[in-house]
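S.,

As promised, the fe (ii) ion run. Input:
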Amino acid sequence: MATEALEIAKPEFRTANGIAAADRKKIAEALGIVLADTYMLFIKTQGVHWNVTGPVFMGVHKLTEEQYENMYEAIDALAERIRALGHKAPASYTKYGELSSINDRDEEQSVAQMLKMLIADHETAVLNMRAATEWCEEKNDYVTADMLTARMSWHEQAVWMLKSLSAEG
Ligand SMILES: [Fe+2]
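Predicted complex:
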């Protein structure tokens, strides 16, 4: 009984899905980075939604709202995929700060600087996702690879929209 209780208390659980336990652990770690990047970008996008001013206010305000709503859902899906792989999903700002390649700078910025920052952050997120996807494919985790491919597609579209809005082309 005591052993059983200890098993339940462990953050990882055993699952037989054809992927080796060590590989699942690495995939979960890679997903943790993607989750942290998405969370940081979610917060920063919402910050731009709130703080944007000037003639492009409505365009940026609306686009960033669509984008942070999308990322809010993605955060949940990524965390739940980590759980389905048998691992614990990181769930604190401290952890996200450690894991993410995206800095959480919050300072006075012009609209052009805000858009430039978000574009660069989306591109950073895509780079980490691409590395994670390659790893997943190598380890036959097509489910996670599929999920990450869809996320990359969305972030690349977000970059296009933000660039178009900032007239960077
Ligand atoms: Fe709002």
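The longest helix spans residues 21-51. The helical segments are 2-9, 21-51, 57-84, 93-99, 111-138, 142-165.

- D.
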